[in-house]
Amino acid sequence: MGSRRFLHEKVPLEKVEDCIWRIPKYKAGMHVPGLVFANDNLIKKMQTDRTLWQSANVTHLPGIYKYSITLPDGHEGYGFPIGGVAATDYDKGVISPGGVGYDINCGVRLLSTNLSAKDLKPKLKQLASLIFRNVPSGLGSRRKDFKVNYSELDHVTKEGVIWLINQGIGWSEDAEHCEESGCMKKANPDKVSPTAKKRGLSQLGTLGSGNHFLEIQKVDKIYDENKAKTYGVNYEGQVTVMIHCGSRGYGHQVCSDYLRIMEHAVRKYQIDIPDRELVCAPGKSNEAKDYYQAMACAVNYAFSNRQTIMHWVRQSFQQAFNQDPENFGLNLVYDVAHNIAKIETHKVNGEKKKVWVHRKGATRAFPPGHEEVPTDYRSEGQPVLIPGSMGTSSWILSGANKAMDLTFGSTAHGAGRMMSRSAAKRKWWGRDVKIALEKRDIIVKAASPVVLAEEADGAYKNVDIVADVSDQLGIATKVARFVPMAVIKG
Amino acid sequence: MDERIKFEFLEHTADVYIASYGKTIEEAFENAAIAMFEVMTETKKIEPNIEDSIQVKGEDEHGLLYNWLEALLVNFETKNRIYSKFNIFSFKKNMRSFSLKAKVWGETFDPKKHLQKVGVKAVTYHRMEIIKDQNGVTLEFILDI
Fold first, then answer.
1. In the annotation, is A413 catalytic?
2. Dihedral angle, C-alpha A356, A360, A365, A369, nearest 10 °
């Protein structure tokens, strides 16, 4: 086996300082260099696939500022590497759907509770079963008693989580604790195709499969007590809930539809790009405006998807304990996007510039004092949520000043795979993965044994190292680490 | 190349990398579709009871492959349909585009009957190759999952 035409272009790399590498402008068409944030081991891994080559390709985007960025969790994606950031000039630059990806606003939300792991233990199994029943997960799954029609779908995608809250799905204070307050402005459902809407209709409030998950976790270690307290993470052993999923078929179709439109755009505007998945359009063009408005709909779909799932998590606590969910806290700590394009202002060579920031597998990490950080958290910085792989740890970090200098206000988003799905299946059986986790006292509810094997934690890089590099660089600093008590998988 | 091999899964870290084969481009496209459904479930358990028609266009053969697989994926997500039998009966190069027409057979996905594997988010152009040589046609493509 092994692919025949799998030739790597050797990408030159210069070490700038500890954990920072530069890809020089080594070929025609590169407007800027690439910058890679990784320790020696992580960089070695990136050199085994096309990550660095893709990072170099991103520098071909017209109007790109400073450098294309690859974060510590960087790995090969489509067009952009996953774990990539690129900022382009708002007027003279381009916007590229590939810089956002297929799963628009794939992201994470974290809930805090006032329960300790000890309090929950007797009810844990029941709670996990209830969540597994209430939150559809896996292939083609949906709740028969929860359906939205086309008009409601347009409300959801235009108005975001506020619309759901007004329907009784969630609490009024939830919206404030989402990036963009749970609703990206400029969302225009008229720019979304009927096919995308059709795919999205039955998938609101579903987890999906692959690397998406829902975990009941406990705080394992607190690294920054003040920041942790501000976020509602109070002590080691406290129970939290993490939800990781995206915009489902709605977002995937928006991306796909606009890749087609952008293919025409690159010819029309004569943009020279080295990879079909990097198609783009000038920020001021109609194609770009339409994409941005459609993408915003998918972003809102994803916020709403996680909001609906969270609502059912709260209901599951209610059913397990026969008490109002408010009694357990169950406050939304924060909801962050990992795949998104935003209009932001950043300093470039000392000058303030309005830019399109593409975050493809990257988390916004705004520092203390930034006006986009919710008022509750502004003094400490934006919460950054980094999920690990199944059965390992997850992190909450805090956005820091260095991110504004180095990474257009961004940091890493996860562990990143190390082993292919086929290799993982050859190595592990789903059943064995489940047994191994249960031996460590972790309850596993999974729709598919195959996904369990593919998602075995040994197939991923160590997320702790990703958090360490981020902390060491000072782009987002460590606040607390969580470990799972129960895992719900698609 | 072994004549019986319709497709195989190649090594790729994050996603699913497929090579499908055929004596003709139609056959390679049909086998690409089987491979995609094999990612999601066990195709041998899908009975070809329901017939659907698919018609797609593409600017080039790569675009046609992308659109063909996407049309099937959309049918899965919107009609809950999974397929195991495919017949592309028309494959044309027009003035400025390519088009195909197919009949496809399968049934409604039932998690009690059909093994759940991993969901496919999207078809991608990444590493997509259409290779024609004396042995026939090889397609290579990656699915985002």
1. yes
2. 20
CATH class of A107-336+369-489: alpha beta
Q: Mutating which of B21, B66, B115, B117 best tests the A interface, going by the most A Cβ atoms within 10 A?
A: B117
Contact B13 A139 (CB under 8 A): no
B71-93 pLDDT tens trace? 999 999 999 999 999 999 999 99
What are A58's two structure tokens? 């991103």
Say which CATH number the domain at B111 has: 3.55.10.10
User: Which stretches does DSSP call E strand in A307-418?
Assistant: 329-337, 339-348, 351-360, 363-364, 383-386, 394-399, 410-411
Ranges in chain A, pLDDT < 70: 1-8
In A265-318, DSSP assigns E strands to 281-282
By residue range, what is the domain housing residue B35? 7-144
On whether residue B33 sits in a domain, the answer given is yes
Q: Does B2 fall in a domain?
A: no
pLDDT-based confidence at B3, cuts 50/70/90? low
Q: Please state whether beta strands A34-37 and A20-23 pair in parallel, antiparallel, or not at all (unpaired).
A: antiparallel
Residue in chain A nearest B130 by alpha carbon: A5
Choose among B77, B67, B80: nearest CA to B32: B67
Domain locations along chain A: 14-101+343-362, 107-336+369-489
**Closest Cβ opposite residue B118 in set A82, A419, A450:** A450
| Chain A residue at shortest CA distance from B18 | A3
Strand extents, DSSP E, A128-212:
none
pLDDT digits (tens, 9 = 90+) for A376-416: 999 999 999 999 988 899 999 999 999 999 999 999 999 88
Number of domains in chain B: 1
Does the residue B1 lie in any domain?
A: no
For A482, the enclosing helix (H) or strand (E) is: strand A476-489
ipTM of the complex: 0.93
**What's this model's pTM, rounded to 2 decimal places?**
0.96
